[in-house]
Specification:
5 helices, three-stranded antiparallel sheet, Alpha-Beta Plaits, 2 domains, alpha+beta
């Protein structure tokens, strides 16, 4: 009788980062091994079967999907790029998970915004995410807005 598998749909953040499937596999194996050990990771048999559009599908043995999902949450870098992996869903078929993929591309570039003395380029994404990118700087600056700040603009 054939071994039963489970598939985990994972969203790759930041938006727009497309890792190589092999690099993603190595990051998943490293995270699972460091968290659960060689024996448990070998029994789970994790493998990356799909990686596109900001999503990935990771295959594992049935019963180990919780352990692999936990290991996926601990991934912080893929090929020296800072990333986060967020579990979206778990299923018994790849087809069911591919129906749940919602590509997140920037809706539009809305131009320049000036906050204080700094000028930022804005990018809007689905799910109400907005990125402000300051050109010509190497340091990140955290900005926090309140509802009043948003209503002024």
């Amino acid at each position: 009788m054939r071994e039963k598998r489970r598939y985990i749909l994972v969203r790759i953040l930041p938006y727009g980062f497309m890792p190589d499937r092999k690099d993603l596999y190595l990051a998943v194996i490293e995270a699972a091994t460091s968290l659960w050990g060689d024996v448990a990771t070998g029994l789970a048999q994790p493998a990356v079967v799909f990686c596109d559009e900001g999503y990935a599908i990771v295959r594992c043995r049935r019963g180990t999907e919780g352990d692999i999902a936990t290991a996926l949450a601990t991934v912080t870098a893929i090929a020296d790029e800072r990333v986060a992996l967020r579990t979206v869903a778990t299923s018994g078929t790849i087809r069911a998970l591919k129906r749940r993929i919602r590509p997140a591309r920037p809706l539009e570039e809305t131009g320049e915004v000036v906050i204080g003395e700094d000028s930022f380029t804005t990018y809007r994404y689905p799910r109400q995410k907005v990125d402000l990118i300051k050109k010509g700087t190497m340091h990140q600056k955290s900005l926090f807005f309140t509802r009043e700040d948003l209503e002024e603009r």
